[in-house]
Amino acid sequence: MTPIFADTSFYAACLSPRDSHHAEALALAAKNTSTIITTEFVFVELANLFSKLARRSAAIRLIHQVRSDSDTLIVPVSSELLQRGFELYSRRPDKEWSLTDCISFVVMKRMKLKTAAEITEMLAVPILEDLPFKAGDEVLAFVNGMGGTPLIELYVVYHELAQILKGRNIKIARNLIGSYITSLEMAGCSITLLKLDDDLTQLWDAPVKTAGLRWGM
Questions:
Q1: Taking the complete model, does pTM exceed 0.85, yes or no?
Q2: 4-5 and 36-39 as β-strands: parallel, antiparallel, unpaired?
């Protein structure tokens, strides 16, 4: 099976019940059967994030647990990896990536793992250039899971999609994220963009009461 990269936000979601993705992160961790890849830089960022006394012991336990897990591949800290990550960090002033994020992207590229940003760009750009959409447009953004993709990962894709659209001055007026058009436990996701006008927006906002969708009731 394809390895999964675990970043700081995943481990932070596992640790914090107040995190909006806490339940999804724990569910993913419980059912995952793939090799997990992470880095010692992620541990540094996680430990810094949970340095307060009330949360410190939880971070220590989790890091010990991950380091002793035979199914987790931990890439060690190195000056060379730090340098490559810093170079990416310096080249992308348009992104709000942390230095640890940039180091993770370098690791994923070396191990031939696509980042969420790369996958989202691959899915979104052909759609944007096909209609084409233009600056000032308002859209409905639909990120659909195929059945086996956790909701937390769909929200990661949605976040990357929002960044792409923001860079093109396209406003997300309405959104829908979840597994609605599925094929059993198929992995992956799809992106749908609908250019909105007043009539379409009014129709979308109309009350819905079905087995799969419900709002405005």
A1: no
A2: parallel
Task: Please state which CATH number belongs to domain 116-215.
Answer: 3.30.1180.20
- Pick from 145, 98, 125, 94: nearest CA to 193: 125
**Confidence category of residue 151, pLDDT binned at 50, 70, 90:** confident
**Cβ proximity of 161 and 119 under 8 Å:** no
Q: What is the pLDDT of residues 43-101, one digit of tens each?
A: 999 999 999 988 899 999 999 999 999 889 999 999 999 999 999 999 999 888 999 99
Are the C-beta atoms of 115 and 182 separated by less than 8 Å? no
DSSP class of 70: T
Domain range annotation of the chain: 4-110, 116-215
> Rounded distance, CA 45 to CA 8, Å?
7
Q: How far apart (Å, rounded) are the C-alpha atoms in residues 24 and 28?
A: 6
- Give the DSSP letter string of 33-44: -SPEEEEHHHHH
Q: Which CATH superfamily is domain 4-110 in?
A: 5'-nuclease (3.40.50.1010)
Instruction: Please state, in angstroms and rounded to a whole number, the distance separating the CA atoms of residues 152 and 21.
Output: 6
